[in-house]
């Protein structure tokens, strides 16, 4: 992902005053931002799933402890 930002940065340096290049830079930056957002959403879903699994495991442990007492 950082490669995309670096690429967009390099294009920006060469784009000043060139409308077509500026448009390409904006498009590339938008792609990078979208890719990063999608990765964040994917990772948040994984974290949510792990949190739910941990909660379920904790509840199961509590039930098991209650049964043995």
Q: Describe it for me?
A:
The protein has 69 residues and is an all-alpha fold. It has one domain (2-68). The chain is built from two helices and no strands. The model has no long low-confidence stretch (mean pLDDT 84).
Which properties best describe this structure?
69 residues; mainly alpha; coiled coil; 2 helices
Largest sheet: none
Please indicate the percent range of residues in DSSP E strands (runs of 2 or more).
under 5%
Separate helix tally: 2
Cα-atom radius of gyration = 23 Å
- Total number of strands: 0
Overall pLDDT level: 84
- Low-confidence spans: none
General shape? rod-shaped
Distance from N terminus to C terminus (CA atoms, Å) equals 52 Å
Q: What kind of oligomer do you see? A: single chain
Number of domains: 1
Please give the share of residues in helix.
over 70%
Sequence of secondary-structure elements = HH
Report the structural category. Answer: mainly alpha
């Amino acid at each position: 992902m950082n490669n995309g930002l670096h690429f967009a940065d390099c294009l920006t340096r060469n784009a000043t005053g060139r409308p077509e290049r500026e448009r390409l830079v904006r498009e590339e930056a938008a792609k990078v931002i979208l890719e990063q957002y999608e990765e964040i959403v994917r990772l948040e879903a994984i974290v949510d799933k792990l949190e739910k699994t941990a909660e379920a495991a904790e509840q199961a442990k509590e039930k098991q402890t209650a049964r043995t007492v």
